[in-house]
């Protein structure tokens, strides 16, 4: 049994949830941001009060680790670390792009068995942070900052359907015209969807060193701290 406090601040949306054994039992979301500096502390206090009032032992804190907004990630990770130190619990890092894929899979938006998933986060101009995964979230293409042109993902589109989603996908609709390209609107990284990835990390014993953990933007693409 596990109780996890989940924090997601990688985009303009600020969200916090509490999950117990995979079920979401508390959630707060603000979509009017970015308001992370003002709202996150309030949401976390409410979540911790909820946990205390229900006498549930807190086991871990899961935080979205990027890619995403530099400021948002810094605020979220700092808050997560503070809770881990204060409550003597473990820290779990949840990759933002994999988190984006969770609602797509849970809601069965992908029909083809051989389809690939390409979650995208907006960077600047025609650049996105993107990775490509299969339906089991096995990495097919590692996360990279891609300048989106008509043939950027042709290698994968030629194999079969590729689903693009996240706030970086909207600006790609008019650029990627391959017949195998599929676009899903309205997908955001939210704390209430972190449970499957966080629970998997617990099962595998994949915890972060609270003292040395840094979010995605402080690392290069091979994991070295800048």
Keywords:
single chain; 226 residues; alpha/beta; five-stranded mixed sheet; 10 strands; disordered C terminus
What does this molecule look like?
This protein is α/β, with parallel strands linked by helices and 226 residues long. The chain is built from five helices and ten strands. Helix content is 27%, strand content 28%. Strand 6 and strand 7 form a beta hairpin. Helix 1 runs parallel beside helix 2. It is globular, with a radius of gyration of 17 Å. The C terminus is likely disordered.
Output the structural class: alpha/beta
State Rg. 17 Å
Mean pLDDT: 94
Which strand order does the major sheet show?
3-2-1-4-5
The percentage of residues in β strands lies in: 25-35%
**DSSP helix count?**
5
Percent in helix? 25-40%
How many DSSP-defined strands?
10
Please report the distance between the alpha carbons of the first and last residues. Answer: 37 Å
Strand count, sense and closure of the main sheet?
5 strands, mixed
Instruction: Note the run of SSEs as H and E.
Output: EEEHEHEHEEEHEEH
Low-confidence stretches: 220-226
Compact summary:
The protein has 226 residues and is an alpha/beta fold. 27% of the residues lie in helices and 28% in strands.
